[in-house]
Design brief:
Elements (H helix, E strand, L loop, with lengths): L2 H11 L2 H11 L8 H16 L8 H14 L12 H8 L4 E5 L5 E2 L8 H9 L4 H20 L6 H12 L3 H15 L1 E2 L1 H12 L3 E6 L5 H10 L7 E4 H4 L7 H10 L4 E5 L2 H10 L3 E4 L3 H5 L9 H15 L8 H27 L4 E5 L3 H11 L7 E4 L3 H7 L5 H8 L10 H7 L3 H12 L30 H10 L1 H6 L2 H15 L4 E6 L5 H13 L5 E8 L12 H6 L2 E6 L5 H6 L6 H8 L15 H5 L6 H23 L10 H19 L10
Helix pairs in contact: 2-3, 4-32, 5-10, 6-7, 6-9, 7-8, 8-9, 9-11, 17-18, 17-31, 17-32, 18-31, 19-26, 21-22, 29-32
Length: 685
């Protein structure tokens, strides 16, 4: 290793935080005179570290700052929206030649940093640490070329000749793999694609300028693949020995074209802006999408998944074409990757375990079932969106889960401001309330020990009384004394529910029940009904995004089922991503926020009662909540479509639960002031 690379490794690579901060500054500087500024910054970073500031950066602090920005800012796409493509095209018509920068201007990659494409190249070459080695080889080759010829312009062949000598990577295979990967994963900037099409239709002279090591032929192929065909010229720095960064490429192109007035469009302030001006060209700077989106993104993701997520999000929201609503962005940014990763997990689990039917429970399952069918259209016959809810589960499984019936209907509602009339209405027992109030008025209520309950004598209970810790036990005893009468109220719904689920299963012997969370009571209630009540020969597994956490009143409620595999969780549980399990707090609104991400325009399902129960439950609402849910769903689906269209899914087929949840966790932090104190467990809703 050369002395220079040894020093570089010590000053840059020894401390990850220094490396990250240095590259954020250095990679944005393209002019030779800017290098000393970056070196001074690097020296300051190392000095600070040596003087005692050695503690690693607490990412949570940065995440909290980003969360505060999210909560205060308008929809982030608003900051990047530009004039309509037709308007820009009209302004550009004044010039004889219109020039475009290529990468990060006409073409996007599905990564937040250009060099992250090397992760995929290394994956295809089966070469560990390829990204770092590839970057190091390019930097060394440029330095040596600059020392020999005075220019740092090199070709892809130069880079791979060095990689062949020093790393053993066959140059031909390496070059071919990198060019194929660039071509496969690039996609068009939709804003400039519209501008380009208008200008091409008008017969304008259109060219591309790029400071790049890729050959002109490859870059032309990439442009044509993305719709930018018909360029008069494509001028690449490595083939001319000069660049936009040193200003020489502008002079060469102007001489070659013999052009009159020229304008160059790009994203770099120096190479695309100032240097174009020095050469007598006009310029138009369009902000780099990844720079624009960076302040809004989470840093708590793994290298490849995080770069792909940020790259897709930034390209979509900051290309300047459209201003999106906050609800759309909520779905796109925070629900999209979570739904995508969750459906990948569901697919892998059901395939591995021979699951014949996937039941997506209403209402969270609405968008999940749509995403699943988008990702796996060949499995459309395997999935069902089925009507179910906490309310339906509590009522229909009451014969077996008697304790849960009283816990959810009574004890979870104590001192919450609910009247007895509301409670009995929710239980669908309004006819039994009169019996309670008459009994209380006559003073016949007995306490737990069998003696007269003095609290019931004299005044009694009225329908308008609130449910409190002082009367809840008397109400429970009243219902327990008449338990068969209570259950009889649900008999017809049990029969209807059995027919409905027999049809949904269609003879399947193994089914997965998919829900967001949290205790798995929806899946377990169906399991009890299938096996113990309806006698259906079908094995049920519950799949959850997340479980109850340490902040729940019953944190261990489902641990036995999770331990046995009866329930499985994607994002967190006591045994999986435990730090996320400890952080997630329903009391601070986290359950509400997560369920908001998977909201649906459909109304809540209250049970199998009434002649039109199914039609009523599948008819979208039209209120503000439903419109908000529709916007969120549109954003989720657009993210998943973009992921599929980018082609990167071939190299990132599984997104971990931690990665998928990281953006949502950031959003939950921002939303806490709005969602705290909301009762997502409320079965009265």
């Amino acid at each position: 290793m050369t002395l220079r690379m040894s020093i570089y490794g010590t000053l840059v690579n020894r401390v990850p935080e220094i490396r990250e901060k240095y590259h954020m500054v250095r990679d944005a500087q393209t002019a030779s005179w800017q290098r000393p500024v970056a070196w001074l910054y690097l020296a300051a970073l190392n000095a600070g570290w040596l003087l005692g500031k050695r503690q690693p950066r607490h990412k949570s602090g940065g995440e909290i700052r980003t969360a505060r920005l999210l909560s205060a800012a308008p929809p982030e796409s608003v900051s990047s929206v530009r004039e309509a493509p037709e308007g820009l095209a009209r302004r550009l018509m004044e010039y004889d030649v219109i020039s475009f920068d290529v990468f990060d201007t006409l073409l996007f990659r599905p990564f937040s940093r250009p060099e992250d494409l090397f992760y995929i190249v290394g994956q295809k070459l089966d070469y560990l640490d390829f990204r770092r080695i590839r970057m190091e080889a390019e930097a060394r080759e440029r330095e040596e070329h600059r020392r020999r010829s005075g220019s740092g312009e090199i070709s892809l062949s130069d880079i791979y000749q060095r990689l062949g000598r020093e790393a053993g990577i066959p140059a031909g295979e390496g070059m071919r793999t990198e060019e194929e990967t660039e071509l496969a994963l690039c996609f068009a900037n939709p804003y400039l694609l519209e501008v380009f099409r208008i200008l091409r239709q008008k017969g304008k002279r259109l060219i591309a300028l790029s400071d790049m090591y890729l050959p002109e032929k490859t870059i032309r192929s990439m442009l044509e693949k993305c719709g930018f065909s018909g360029m008069e010229g494509c001028f690449v720095s490595c083939e001319y020995g000069c660049s936009k960064s040193d200003g020489g490429l502008y002079e060469r192109v102007k001489k070659e074209l013999g052009a009159g007035s020229c304008i160059h469009i790009g994203d770099n302030r120096i190479s695309d802006g100032e240097n174009a001006g020095k050469a007598g060209w006009d310029s138009l700077l369009l902000p780099n999408v990844n720079t624009a989106g960076a302040p809004f993104r989470t840093g708590e993701m793994s290298a490849v998944a995080g770069s792909v997520y940020r790259g897709l999000a930034n390209a979509h929201l900051h290309n300047g074409l459209k201003a999106r609503s906050r609800d759309y962005e909520c779905g796109f940014l925070y629900g999209g990757i979570l739904a995508l990763g969750y459906c990948q997990f569901i697919h892998e689990y059901t395939k591995t375990h021979g699951i014949e039917r996937i039941l997506f429970l209403a209402r969270d399952g609405d968008i999940l079932s749509r995403v699943y069918r988008l990702l796996y259209p060949e499995e459309a016959g395997k999935t069902r969106y089925v009507l179910w809810s906490r309310l339906a589960a509590v009522k229909l499984s009451a014969r077996y889960y008697k304790y849960d019936y009283f816990r959810r209907f009574l004890f979870h509602k104590v001192n919450q401001g609910f009247t007895l009339e509301q409670i009995f209405q929710a239980m669908e027992l309004p006819d039994m309330l009169d019996g309670l109030t008459r009994q209380e008025s006559s003073g016949r209520q007995t306490g737990p020990g069998g003696t007269n309950d003095a609290a019931g004598q004299g005044t009694g209970l009225k329908k308008t009384d609130l449910l409190t810790d002082g009367n809840v036990r008397r109400i429970q005893e009243y219902l327990l004394d008449r338990w068969e009468e209570v259950l009889a109220h649900y008999d017809s719904q049990l029969e209807t529910g059995k027919r409905y689920y027999e049809q949904a299963l269609s003879g399947a012997k193994k089914a997965a029940v998919v829900d967001i969370g949290w205790a798995g009571s929806g899946a377990m209630a169906l399991d009890v009904l299938f096996r113990r009540v309806w006698k259906l020969d079908c094995q049920i597994t519950g799949i959850l995004a997340g479980t109850n956490t340490r902040h729940n009143a019953e944190p261990d409620m489902s641990e036995a089922q999770l331990a046995s595999g009866k329930l499985v969780s994607y994002v967190f549980s006591q045994a999986h991503n435990r730090d996320l399990w400890e952080r997630h707090d329903p009391a601070r609104g986290d359950n509400v926020a997560m369920e908001k991400l998977f909201s649906s325009p459909f109304p809540g399902f209250r049970g199998f009662s009434g002649p039109d129960w199914e039609e009523r439950s599948l008819r979208p609402d039209t209120d503000s909540r439903a419109r908000q849910a529709a916007q969120i769903q549109e954003g989720i689906l657009d993210f998943c479509r973009l992921y599929l269209e980018s082609g990167v899914g071939k190299y990132l087929p599984r997104i971990s639960g931690r990665d998928a949840a990281a953006p949502a966790c950031l959003w939950m932090e921002a939303e806490r002031k709005n969602t705290e104190k909301e009762d997502i467990q409320c079965v009265l809703a």
